[in-house]
Structures are given as structure tokens and as C-alpha cells.
Amino acid sequence: MNLLHFIYLTACLTTGLTAGVFFAYEISVNGALHRLKDSEYIRAMQEINRVIKNIFFLTSFLAPVFLLPYLTYTEFSDTGSFYLLLTASSSYIVGTFAITVLGNVPLNERLEIFKEEEATVEEKTKARQAFEIPWNRLHRIRTVFSFFAFAFLLLSLLIE
């Protein structure tokens, strides 16, 4: 195995892991959280947003930002593999990374400073509505784009 093979392997693993985390969250966690009362939902999301900031998630989430463009650069030519990698890179950087950084994270940060234990019932309901609807919409978008990035990356390996 040479260095380029290792980079491809790492890109596939990290892109796939990120897509898998987002997909699993979309099809299970969001539904379960939606069933919670406002105060429970807010506390749960605050805790999830704290716990997700770990080396394992951050590595798998950030690695494709660097690896996919590098692989695209190495395949620069007028070939199918290049265009598939370009699509994978664009999908991940714009649809997964940028949506997360510019959309989900600011919502997470706003929710983090919300003092659920000091809020009235109405304030909790308002805070949840301001968070849950846009956060889930953005999450759905990044889930789809992370899937596309992973799929196009895998397809690029099949084109020779």
C-alpha cells in the first residue's frame, strides 16, 4: 500500500463514518428527541452538543475537508474519476462541512447559553421551536450531502 492508497482509504473511512453518524442520527435520534417535552429536549440537545465535541468525531468530520480536495488534485485531468472526486469534494465541503459550521453550530451555540432551568414554560417552547425546526432541516441537508460525497468517492474508485 502506498501513501495515495492510504489517503484514499482514510478518506473513504472518514467520509463514510461521518455520513453514517448523520444518517443514524436522522433516522433514530431526531425522532426520539422530538417525542420529549421541551425542557427534556433542550437538556438532551445541550448534552449531545457537548459530547459530540470529541477527537473521534472531529477527526472523522474534518479529515474529508482536506483529503477529498487532495485526492481531487491528484486525479486532475479530464477523466470520470476526477469529476466524481470533484463532486465528492464539493458535496462534502459545501453541503456537509459548511452547512454544519455556518448553520448547525451557531444554532448549537445559541441553545448552549439558554438557561433551561431558569426559563418559563413559554420560553422553553419558544427556544425549542427556534432551534429544532431549522436544526433538523439543516441536518437533513448535510446528511444527504454527506451520503452523496461518500457515494461519489466510492464511485471514483470504480472508474479507471
Describe this structure in words.
With 160 residues, the protein is an all-alpha fold. It has one domain. 86% of the residues lie in helices and 0% in strands. It has 5 helices and no strands. It has helices at 3-34, 38-51, 55-74, 80-112, 121-158. Helix 2 crosses helix 5 and helix 3 packs antiparallel against helix 4. It is elongated. The model has no long low-confidence stretch (mean pLDDT 96).
Q: Which structural class do you get from the secondary structure elements?
A: mainly alpha
Q: Tell me, what's the shape?
A: elongated
Order of helices and strands: HHHHH
* Number of domain modules: 1
Whole-number mean pLDDT: 96
Number of strands: 0
Helix run count:
5
- Strand percent estimate: under 5%
Query: Gap between N and C termini, in Å?
Result: 18 Å
Which ranges are low-confidence, i.e. pLDDT below 50, for 5 or more consecutive residues?
none
The major beta sheet can be summarized as:
none
Radius of gyration using CA atoms only = 18 Å
Give the helix level as a range of percent. over 70%
Summarize the structure.
With 160 residues, the chain is mostly helical. It is 86% helix and 0% strand. It comes from Leptospira idonii.
Provide tags for this entry.
160 residues, single chain, mainly alpha, 86% helix, 5 helices, elongated
Secondary structure: elements and pairs:
Layout: H1 3-34, H2 38-51, H3 55-74, H4 80-112, H5 121-158
Helix pairs in contact: 1-3, 1-5, 2-5, 3-4, 4-5
